[in-house]
Here is the input.
Amino acid sequence: MLVVAIVMVAFDWRLAVVAFLVSAPLVLVLRTVQRHLVAAHTKSREKNADLLADVGEIFAGVETIQAYGAVDTFLSRTLKSIGVRAKANIRAGVIGAFLFPSGEVFATLTVASVIGTGIALGPGSGITAGALVGFVFLTYRFLEPIAEFTETIDQTQSAVAGLRRVISVLDTPIGPEESSRPLPLPTGSLGVDVRNVTFSYRSRGDDENDEPVLTDINLLIAPGEHVAFVGPSGSGKTTLARLISRLVDPQIGTVSVGGVDLRRVANADLRSRLVVVPQEPFLFATTIGENLVFADPNATRQDVVATFEELR
Here is the structure.
Protein backbone atom coordinates (compact mmCIF):
# COMPACT_ATOMS: atom_id res chain seq x y z
CA MET A 1 0.00 0.00 0.00
CA LEU A 2 2.83 2.42 0.84
CA VAL A 3 4.65 1.54 -2.38
CA VAL A 4 1.49 2.18 -4.41
CA ALA A 5 1.02 5.53 -2.65
CA ILE A 6 4.58 6.57 -3.57
CA VAL A 7 3.98 5.56 -7.20
CA MET A 8 0.73 7.57 -7.20
CA VAL A 9 2.54 10.68 -5.99
CA ALA A 10 5.25 10.20 -8.59
CA PHE A 11 2.65 9.62 -11.33
CA ASP A 12 0.62 12.77 -10.55
CA TRP A 13 0.75 14.45 -7.17
CA ARG A 14 -2.47 16.40 -7.73
CA LEU A 15 -4.59 13.30 -8.31
CA ALA A 16 -2.76 11.56 -5.48
CA VAL A 17 -3.66 14.34 -3.03
CA VAL A 18 -7.32 14.10 -4.11
CA ALA A 19 -7.31 10.31 -3.62
CA PHE A 20 -5.68 10.60 -0.19
CA LEU A 21 -8.01 13.35 1.03
CA VAL A 22 -11.20 11.57 -0.06
CA SER A 23 -10.16 8.17 1.35
CA ALA A 24 -8.68 9.54 4.61
CA PRO A 25 -12.03 9.72 6.51
CA LEU A 26 -12.37 5.98 5.93
CA VAL A 27 -9.71 5.43 8.61
CA LEU A 28 -11.85 7.30 11.16
CA VAL A 29 -14.98 5.42 10.08
CA LEU A 30 -13.27 2.04 10.39
CA ARG A 31 -11.80 2.97 13.75
CA THR A 32 -15.21 4.00 15.08
CA VAL A 33 -16.92 0.88 13.74
CA GLN A 34 -14.11 -1.28 15.11
CA ARG A 35 -14.52 0.19 18.61
CA HIS A 36 -18.25 -0.50 18.61
CA LEU A 37 -17.67 -3.92 17.07
CA VAL A 38 -15.28 -4.96 19.83
CA ALA A 39 -17.80 -3.90 22.48
CA ALA A 40 -20.60 -5.74 20.66
CA HIS A 41 -18.63 -8.97 20.31
CA THR A 42 -17.51 -8.75 23.94
CA LYS A 43 -21.12 -8.42 25.07
CA SER A 44 -22.07 -11.29 22.76
CA ARG A 45 -19.43 -13.50 24.38
CA GLU A 46 -20.62 -12.52 27.86
CA LYS A 47 -24.25 -13.34 27.04
CA ASN A 48 -23.17 -16.62 25.49
CA ALA A 49 -21.34 -17.46 28.73
CA ASP A 50 -24.46 -16.57 30.76
CA LEU A 51 -26.55 -18.88 28.58
CA LEU A 52 -24.10 -21.76 28.94
CA ALA A 53 -24.04 -21.20 32.71
CA ASP A 54 -27.85 -21.39 32.86
CA VAL A 55 -27.92 -24.57 30.76
CA GLY A 56 -25.12 -26.14 32.81
CA GLU A 57 -26.96 -25.31 36.03
CA ILE A 58 -30.10 -27.00 34.72
CA PHE A 59 -28.23 -30.18 33.78
CA ALA A 60 -26.43 -30.24 37.14
CA GLY A 61 -29.60 -29.76 39.19
CA VAL A 62 -32.20 -31.39 36.95
CA GLU A 63 -33.46 -33.75 39.68
CA THR A 64 -33.83 -30.92 42.20
CA ILE A 65 -35.60 -28.74 39.64
CA GLN A 66 -38.04 -31.53 38.83
CA ALA A 67 -38.57 -32.40 42.50
CA TYR A 68 -39.60 -28.83 43.36
CA GLY A 69 -41.68 -28.31 40.22
CA ALA A 70 -39.49 -25.46 39.02
CA VAL A 71 -39.18 -26.62 35.42
CA ASP A 72 -41.24 -23.74 34.02
CA THR A 73 -39.29 -21.17 36.03
CA PHE A 74 -35.89 -22.38 34.81
CA LEU A 75 -37.19 -22.86 31.28
CA SER A 76 -38.42 -19.27 31.24
CA ARG A 77 -35.06 -18.02 32.52
CA THR A 78 -33.21 -20.01 29.88
CA LEU A 79 -35.45 -18.72 27.09
CA LYS A 80 -34.79 -15.19 28.33
CA SER A 81 -31.04 -15.83 28.21
CA ILE A 82 -31.41 -17.17 24.67
CA GLY A 83 -33.24 -14.00 23.64
CA VAL A 84 -30.64 -11.72 25.20
CA ARG A 85 -27.83 -13.69 23.54
CA ALA A 86 -29.60 -13.52 20.18
CA LYS A 87 -29.98 -9.73 20.44
CA ALA A 88 -26.30 -9.36 21.30
CA ASN A 89 -25.29 -11.53 18.33
CA ILE A 90 -27.60 -9.63 15.98
CA ARG A 91 -26.18 -6.29 17.12
CA ALA A 92 -22.63 -7.51 16.52
CA GLY A 93 -23.67 -8.79 13.09
CA VAL A 94 -25.33 -5.52 12.13
CA ILE A 95 -22.28 -3.48 13.14
CA GLY A 96 -20.01 -5.88 11.28
CA ALA A 97 -22.22 -5.55 8.20
CA PHE A 98 -21.29 -1.86 7.95
CA LEU A 99 -17.60 -2.61 7.44
CA PHE A 100 -17.52 -3.92 3.88
CA PRO A 101 -20.05 -1.42 2.44
CA SER A 102 -18.22 1.48 4.07
CA GLY A 103 -15.00 0.45 2.30
CA GLU A 104 -16.83 0.11 -1.02
CA VAL A 105 -18.52 3.49 -0.63
CA PHE A 106 -15.25 5.29 0.03
CA ALA A 107 -13.57 3.41 -2.83
CA THR A 108 -16.30 4.54 -5.20
CA LEU A 109 -16.10 8.13 -3.95
CA THR A 110 -12.32 8.13 -4.27
CA VAL A 111 -12.35 6.82 -7.84
CA ALA A 112 -15.13 9.23 -8.81
CA SER A 113 -13.20 12.16 -7.31
CA VAL A 114 -10.03 11.15 -9.16
CA ILE A 115 -11.89 10.87 -12.47
CA GLY A 116 -13.69 14.16 -11.90
CA THR A 117 -10.46 15.96 -11.00
CA GLY A 118 -8.67 14.48 -14.02
CA ILE A 119 -11.43 15.61 -16.37
CA ALA A 120 -11.44 19.07 -14.76
CA LEU A 121 -7.69 19.46 -15.18
CA GLY A 122 -7.90 18.19 -18.75
CA PRO A 123 -5.20 17.35 -21.30
CA GLY A 124 -3.78 20.83 -20.95
CA SER A 125 -2.38 19.90 -17.54
CA GLY A 126 -0.70 16.83 -18.96
CA ILE A 127 -3.38 14.33 -17.91
CA THR A 128 -4.35 12.30 -20.95
CA ALA A 129 -7.13 9.72 -21.08
CA GLY A 130 -4.58 6.91 -20.86
CA ALA A 131 -2.84 8.53 -17.89
CA LEU A 132 -6.18 8.94 -16.11
CA VAL A 133 -7.08 5.29 -16.68
CA GLY A 134 -3.66 4.27 -15.36
CA PHE A 135 -4.09 6.40 -12.25
CA VAL A 136 -7.54 4.94 -11.62
CA PHE A 137 -5.92 1.49 -11.72
CA LEU A 138 -3.37 2.69 -9.13
CA THR A 139 -6.21 4.02 -7.00
CA TYR A 140 -7.89 0.61 -7.00
CA ARG A 141 -4.59 -1.01 -6.02
CA PHE A 142 -4.18 1.56 -3.24
CA LEU A 143 -7.65 0.79 -1.82
CA GLU A 144 -7.44 -2.99 -2.30
CA PRO A 145 -5.79 -3.73 1.11
CA ILE A 146 -8.48 -1.66 2.83
CA ALA A 147 -11.19 -3.72 1.14
CA GLU A 148 -9.50 -6.93 2.29
CA PHE A 149 -9.17 -5.50 5.78
CA THR A 150 -12.90 -4.74 5.99
CA GLU A 151 -13.66 -8.35 5.00
CA THR A 152 -11.58 -9.85 7.81
CA ILE A 153 -11.96 -7.31 10.62
CA ASP A 154 -15.33 -8.69 11.74
CA GLN A 155 -13.97 -12.19 12.31
CA THR A 156 -10.81 -10.75 13.82
CA GLN A 157 -12.72 -8.68 16.37
CA SER A 158 -14.85 -11.70 17.29
CA ALA A 159 -11.66 -13.69 17.90
CA VAL A 160 -10.17 -10.81 19.91
CA ALA A 161 -13.28 -10.64 22.10
CA GLY A 162 -13.04 -14.39 22.75
CA LEU A 163 -9.33 -14.10 23.49
CA ARG A 164 -9.99 -11.35 26.02
CA ARG A 165 -12.49 -13.57 27.78
CA VAL A 166 -9.96 -16.39 27.96
CA ILE A 167 -7.20 -14.06 29.19
CA SER A 168 -9.48 -12.55 31.83
CA VAL A 169 -10.17 -16.06 33.17
CA LEU A 170 -6.48 -16.98 33.12
CA ASP A 171 -5.57 -13.73 34.88
CA THR A 172 -8.09 -14.31 37.66
CA PRO A 173 -6.06 -14.94 40.82
CA ILE A 174 -6.61 -18.38 42.33
CA GLY A 175 -6.42 -18.14 46.09
CA PRO A 176 -4.14 -15.85 48.09
CA GLU A 177 -0.92 -14.51 46.63
CA GLU A 178 2.16 -16.66 47.20
CA SER A 179 5.06 -15.31 49.23
CA SER A 180 8.03 -14.07 47.22
CA ARG A 181 10.37 -15.49 49.90
CA PRO A 182 8.70 -18.70 51.12
CA LEU A 183 9.83 -20.65 54.14
CA PRO A 184 9.99 -24.47 54.08
CA LEU A 185 7.73 -26.54 56.30
CA PRO A 186 9.51 -28.68 58.89
CA THR A 187 9.74 -32.43 58.34
CA GLY A 188 7.61 -34.91 60.25
CA SER A 189 4.10 -34.48 61.57
CA LEU A 190 2.75 -30.96 61.58
CA GLY A 191 0.55 -29.16 64.06
CA VAL A 192 -1.94 -26.41 63.35
CA ASP A 193 -2.09 -23.14 65.29
CA VAL A 194 -4.95 -20.68 64.68
CA ARG A 195 -4.50 -17.45 66.62
CA ASN A 196 -7.00 -14.60 67.00
CA VAL A 197 -8.46 -15.22 63.55
CA THR A 198 -11.29 -13.08 62.22
CA PHE A 199 -12.54 -13.66 58.70
CA SER A 200 -15.33 -12.34 56.48
CA TYR A 201 -16.15 -13.04 52.87
CA ARG A 202 -15.80 -9.90 50.79
CA SER A 203 -18.81 -8.75 48.82
CA ARG A 204 -18.42 -7.71 45.20
CA GLY A 205 -18.20 -4.11 46.29
CA ASP A 206 -15.21 -4.96 48.52
CA ASP A 207 -17.08 -3.58 51.51
CA GLU A 208 -14.72 -3.77 54.49
CA ASN A 209 -17.71 -3.81 56.87
CA ASP A 210 -18.96 -7.24 55.80
CA GLU A 211 -20.27 -9.39 58.63
CA PRO A 212 -17.51 -11.70 59.96
CA VAL A 213 -18.03 -15.43 59.52
CA LEU A 214 -15.42 -16.19 62.19
CA THR A 215 -14.49 -13.83 65.02
CA ASP A 216 -11.39 -14.09 67.24
CA ILE A 217 -10.94 -17.85 66.76
CA ASN A 218 -8.13 -19.64 68.60
CA LEU A 219 -7.35 -23.28 67.93
CA LEU A 220 -4.37 -25.55 68.56
CA ILE A 221 -4.13 -28.99 66.96
CA ALA A 222 -1.11 -31.02 68.06
CA PRO A 223 0.84 -33.13 65.52
CA GLY A 224 -0.90 -36.48 64.99
CA GLU A 225 -4.06 -35.35 66.76
CA HIS A 226 -7.47 -36.11 65.21
CA VAL A 227 -10.00 -33.26 65.43
CA ALA A 228 -13.58 -32.98 64.17
CA PHE A 229 -15.36 -29.65 63.69
CA VAL A 230 -19.00 -30.00 64.72
CA GLY A 231 -21.68 -27.36 64.47
CA PRO A 232 -24.84 -26.24 62.70
CA SER A 233 -24.85 -25.21 59.06
CA GLY A 234 -23.30 -21.79 58.60
CA SER A 235 -21.28 -21.88 61.81
CA GLY A 236 -17.96 -21.62 59.91
CA LYS A 237 -16.68 -25.21 59.78
CA THR A 238 -15.91 -25.11 56.05
CA THR A 239 -14.47 -21.61 56.35
CA LEU A 240 -12.08 -22.74 59.08
CA ALA A 241 -10.96 -25.67 56.92
CA ARG A 242 -10.40 -23.27 54.02
CA LEU A 243 -8.26 -21.08 56.27
CA ILE A 244 -6.15 -24.01 57.45
CA SER A 245 -5.60 -25.15 53.85
CA ARG A 246 -4.95 -21.53 52.83
CA LEU A 247 -7.61 -21.32 50.21
CA VAL A 248 -8.30 -17.95 51.84
CA ASP A 249 -6.38 -15.71 54.25
CA PRO A 250 -7.82 -14.19 57.44
CA GLN A 251 -8.27 -10.42 57.68
CA ILE A 252 -7.07 -10.55 61.29
CA GLY A 253 -4.84 -13.11 63.01
CA THR A 254 -2.58 -15.87 61.75
CA VAL A 255 -2.86 -19.52 60.74
CA SER A 256 0.34 -21.53 61.17
CA VAL A 257 1.23 -25.09 60.22
CA GLY A 258 4.31 -26.61 61.77
CA GLY A 259 5.05 -23.24 63.41
CA VAL A 260 5.23 -21.44 60.04
CA ASP A 261 2.72 -18.76 59.06
CA LEU A 262 0.89 -20.04 55.99
CA ARG A 263 1.44 -16.66 54.31
CA ARG A 264 5.16 -17.54 54.21
CA VAL A 265 4.74 -21.08 52.84
CA ALA A 266 5.07 -21.90 49.13
CA ASN A 267 1.86 -23.29 47.63
CA ALA A 268 3.59 -26.37 46.22
CA ASP A 269 5.14 -27.15 49.61
CA LEU A 270 1.82 -26.72 51.41
CA ARG A 271 -0.15 -28.84 48.93
CA SER A 272 2.40 -31.64 49.19
CA ARG A 273 1.95 -31.78 52.99
CA LEU A 274 -1.68 -30.80 53.52
CA VAL A 275 -4.57 -32.32 51.59
CA VAL A 276 -8.15 -31.07 51.43
CA VAL A 277 -10.97 -33.47 50.58
CA PRO A 278 -14.15 -31.46 49.80
CA GLN A 279 -17.53 -32.70 50.97
CA GLU A 280 -18.67 -32.78 47.33
CA PRO A 281 -15.73 -34.27 45.40
CA PHE A 282 -15.35 -33.50 41.72
CA LEU A 283 -14.65 -36.30 39.26
CA PHE A 284 -12.95 -35.54 35.95
CA ALA A 285 -14.27 -37.18 32.78
CA THR A 286 -11.82 -40.06 32.84
CA THR A 287 -11.22 -43.33 34.73
CA ILE A 288 -11.31 -43.64 38.52
CA GLY A 289 -7.63 -44.53 38.48
CA GLU A 290 -6.70 -41.39 36.57
CA ASN A 291 -8.82 -39.32 38.94
CA LEU A 292 -6.87 -40.74 41.86
CA VAL A 293 -3.51 -39.72 40.40
CA PHE A 294 -4.45 -36.48 38.60
CA ALA A 295 -2.25 -34.45 40.95
CA ASP A 296 0.70 -36.75 40.27
CA PRO A 297 0.42 -38.32 36.79
CA ASN A 298 3.71 -40.17 37.36
CA ALA A 299 2.30 -42.18 40.26
CA THR A 300 2.16 -45.93 39.65
CA ARG A 301 -0.52 -48.43 40.59
CA GLN A 302 1.71 -49.60 43.44
CA ASP A 303 1.84 -46.02 44.77
CA VAL A 304 -1.96 -45.83 44.75
CA VAL A 305 -2.30 -49.17 46.56
CA ALA A 306 0.32 -48.14 49.12
CA THR A 307 -1.54 -44.88 49.80
CA PHE A 308 -4.78 -46.71 50.42
CA GLU A 309 -2.99 -49.11 52.75
CA GLU A 310 -1.70 -46.15 54.76
CA LEU A 311 -5.18 -44.63 54.98
CA ARG A 312 -6.88 -47.87 55.99
The chain has a mean pLDDT of 83. The longest helix spans residues 129-170.
